[in-house]
Design a protein that fits this description.
globular, binds alpha-D-galactopyranose, Alpha-Beta Plaits, 40% helix, alpha+beta, 388 residues, 2 domains, 15 strands, six-stranded mixed β-sheet, 11 helices, Ribosomal Protein S5, domain 2, four-stranded antiparallel β-sheet
Length: 388
């Protein structure tokens, strides 16, 4: 589908957009539910994302329109501090509110958004729209924020304005992403390395289960709280802020302090998943995709049984993959409770994979999945007017 955002902007606002920016979504290759536990994650930016066209206006209003939704949202300097009824507009509203709180002057602006990340699919459509807004305003007004400052602004919007106690991975991934590279990010120190992803004879597929993520936010916050409870138990003998400060050996010495079985399972997932990211980074660096794939399956199993954030739809996809000799690894990606899985499959097998998986999935679940082959792509940038 070809969309000329400049033309669409002119149709909506009867003037030209002054700039158009793109910000990607992300997949996390491995290291799930680890960021808010202070450990290692390995996301990368993808080619699906959010475009935003902007132009100033003279009436001092902030106007938010989107080609994806019919509702127009309008805010001004008084109402920008509050959430609005239309859910998607709360992300740009939250960003402008943060910038103003930070002492920046943001005059009236007209926005037109377009996104091709399926909403609620676990590919970070919300981080993408937050960073799209923050990046656009930073560039347009020359606000002088560096990339990490933009990430922190967007995270504050997610945590304080939207109310999801998420970690920093998504905002970091969509901002720091680079073509053909994964980000190995330590979520406590925010030190990171870019690792070249050479998939050789394989491709990365994204499989959207198309299962709406009902109650995902409340269950997510529940998992965050469970990990904090685990830390509290462990603090009876040792001092730590985050679970991932513990090695597997050290955890084994103190895990007896966690008397609740569910909390113990959650903590066990976190400790082992953090270890798997170390191993996965080594495997990727050494071009050992078979080991990488095995770690993906192990990650999924742990998210299914110990962390309990999968579901029959994601499990159906991963079960199919593990029985298919042309697929070397698969797992859910993102928060879980529906959304997307990723799989590493042989190059050239994409069409058959889509056919076979679709049959299997429809038979088990009753509706269609959506399957993409994904590039690993660059972070935010200025673009021309047409989205190809
Ligand atoms: C969501 C959150 C991230 C991260 C993942 C799970 O995407 O926004 O911060 O916790 O879930 O790994």
């Amino acid at each position: 589908m070809n969309i000329n955002l400049q033309e669409k902007f002119a149709e909506q606002y009867h003037k030209n957009a002054e700039a158009i920016y793109f910000t990607p979504g992300r997949v996390n290759l491995i290291g799930e539910h680890i960021d808010y536990n202070g450990g290692l994650v390995m996301p990368c930016a993808i080619s699906l994302g959010t475009w935003v066209a902007i132009a100033p206006n003279s009436d001092g209003q902030y106007r938010f329109k989107s080609l994806n939704f019919d509702v127009e949202t309008v805010a001004n300097s008084n109402t920008i501090t509050e959430k609005n009824g239309s859910i998607w507009a709360n992300y740009p509203i939250g960003v402008i509110n943060e910038l103003i709180r930070d002492g920046k002057v943001i005059n009236g602006l007209d926005f037109l958004f377009y996104g091709n990340i399926p909403i609620g699919s676990g590919l970070s459509s919300s981080a993408s729209i937050e960073i799209a807004t923050a990046f656009a305003l930073n560039a347009y007004y020359n606000l002088g924020y560096d990339k990490l400052a933009l990430v922190r602004i967007a995270k504050r919007v997610e945590n304080d304005f939207i109310g999801l106690n998420s970690g920093i991975m998504d905002q970091f991934a969509v901002t720091f992403g680079e073509r053909e590279k994964a980000i190995v990010l330590d979520c406590e120190t925010l030190k990171y390395k870019m690792v070249h992803v050479d998939l050789g004879d394989y491709v990365l597929a994204i499989i959207n289960t198309n299962k709406p993520r009902e109650l995902a936010d409340s269950k997510y916050n529940e998992r965050v709280a469970e990990c904090q409870t685990a830390v509290k138990f462990l603090n009876e003998e040792i001092t730590l802020r985050y679970l991932c400060e513990l090695s597997a050996e050290k955890f084994a010495l103190h895990s007896h302090l966690i008397s609740n079985e569910t909390i113990l399972n959650r903590a066990t997932h976190v400790i082992k998943e953090n270890d798997r990211v170390h191993l996965a980074a080594k495997a990727l660096n050494g071009g050992d995709l078979t080991t990488f794939g095995r770690l993906m399956y192990a990650s999924h199993e742990s998210l299914r049984t110990l962390y309990e954030v999968s579901g029959k739809e994601l499990d159906a996809v991963v079960d199919f993959c593990s029985g298919d000799e042309h697929v070397i690894g698969a797992r859910m990606t993102g928060a879980g409770f529906g959304g997307c899985a990723i799989a590493l499959l042989e190059k050239g097998y994409e069409e058959d994979f889509a056919k076979h998986l679709t049959n299997y999935y429809v038979d088990k679940i009753g509706y269609l999945p959506t399957i993409y082959v994904s590039d690993i792509n660059d972070g935010p940038h200025l673009v021309t007017d047409t989205i190809g």
